Amino acid sequence: MDIQSTAELLGNLGEFIASIAVLITLIYLAVQIKQNTKAMHVTARGHIVEGTQHLRGLLMNNEFVRGALVKQHRGGELSDEEKLVLRHYTVTMFRNWEYQHYQFTNGLVDQDSFRATQVVWRVSLSPYNIKLWPKVRDQFTEVFAQELERVMAATEKSEEQ
Fold first, then answer.
1. Mind spelling out the 3-state secondary structure of 132-149?
2. Whole-number pLDDT of residue 29
């Protein structure tokens, strides 16, 4: 075997080894992306739970907010201060729901989890929330607004039956 043949053989061997290295790198990157995607799903779900727990914490730990919500739920007359607090509480709740919807539409929350989330939305909706919605709708994305209105319509329809 002459030097040229040896050089060609070594060149071909080098290309083969480089191809295998590229393949191994691509497999490694695919595994890393899959793990990163899984971590993003877990993080998104964690943020949704945190937001929901924060709102529940306000109800459980803030007597004024809790009292205003109970009064509103029973149809009592609210003071101006109670109306203001409830308005901000409700907008915060809607914002949390918008975040949940955003995570779903971006594929970070699966269909089953989002359906369960919408059950919480339905249970949390009150006549006050529904009445306030048109006044604050423009603060939210159109795609979320349409989804919430669909849930509101389904909630009102189920209450009529």
1. HHHHHHHHCCHHHHHHHH
2. 79
